[in-house]
Amino acid sequence: MLERDIVRKAEELGFAIDPSRVVDSLSVAEQQRVEILKVLLAGARILILDEP
């Protein structure tokens, strides 16, 4: 169920994420997308993003 939710939310946001990949094998951009997906799937209503 969680994997299906990840794929559904990623597609909704236009992210191409393979939930079976190890995070260390992802690019920095992909890792950031994973973090965004994590907080959205946890129910966060507000995201504060700080990029230097």
Describe this structure in words.
It holds the Pfam family ABC_tran. Keywords: ATP-binding, Nucleotide-binding. It is a single chain. It is globular, with a radius of gyration of 11 Å. Helix 1 crosses helix 2. It contains 2 helices and no strands. The mean pLDDT is 89. It starts with a helix and ends in an 11-residue tail after the last helix. It has one domain. With 52 residues, the protein is mainly alpha-helical.
Quick recap of the structure?
With 52 residues, the protein is an all-alpha fold.
Radius of gyration using CA atoms only: 11 Å
Provide the helix percentage.
40-55%
- Could you state the order of secondary-structure elements as H and E? HH
In DSSP terms, counting alpha (H) and pi (I) runs of 4 or more, how many helices?
Answer: 2
Jot down its keywords:
52 residues; mainly alpha; 2 helices; 50% helix; globular; nucleotide-binding; ABC_transporter-like_ATP-bd; ABC transporter, ATP-binding protein; ATP hydrolysis activity; ATP binding
